[in-house]
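**User:** I keep going back and forth on a fold encoding question. It is easy to fool oneself when nobody else works the same problem. Could you pick a protein and write out its sequence and tokenised fold? Could you put it straight underneath, so I can go through it closely?

**Assistant:**
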Amino acid sequence: MKRLDLGGLRVLLAGGTDGEGGGEGALVVLMHGFGAPGDDLASLWRVVAAPPGTRWAFPAAPLALQGMGPEGRAWWKIDIMRHLMEVERGGGAAQERDAPAGMSEANAHVVALLDELDARLRPSKVVLGGFSQGAMLACDVALRTDRPLAGIALLSGTLVAGDDWTPLAAHRRGLPVFQSHGTEDAMLSYAQAEKLRDLLRQGGAEVTWVPFKGGHQIPAPVIDALGRWMRAALA
């Protein structure tokens, strides 16, 4: 693995022919969740059974967080305590309708990153995805741009910016989507994830829905299902 500065972000490259993103294989770009370090998802390249030669990029979010560990980062700021209180009392309607403050800036960072990865690696196909906040951002980039994508992988994400995403979803008709979520997720509700699934399906996306009994995590059954999905999406 090697680290580079691309699109204004620190990025870990892995996989390919040399373990450092070499070769001519497809590319998977995965973005971590709120409060995690940039390399939080890096172990996935070794355990997700993507096609041989697949290259992986793991960008670190631009915002450093205080009190979330030395490497804790975010794509946009969240008041975690307020969020958890809203989830506990069944709230979240405003969150699912409105784009979070800072999402548009994060979107611009990812678009710049993808432009540089295209120029440097020249992948034939690209899967964009992430976990939690990273999944929300991946969905936002997919819906707000016309960038060619082989698919998006949404791991324990949720519906935000619904007022914007609903009319945009139709322009991604036929896009392969992998979406997983835990039925006992206390951070991002299962019901709200179902709303995202339904929005994408109504727009014509081909959603592979993988629910699991568990919380805010990526368990082994999801890793196995993600590998199967990637082999089809990147074939």
User: Anything to note?
Assistant: The two ends are 24 Å apart (CA to CA).
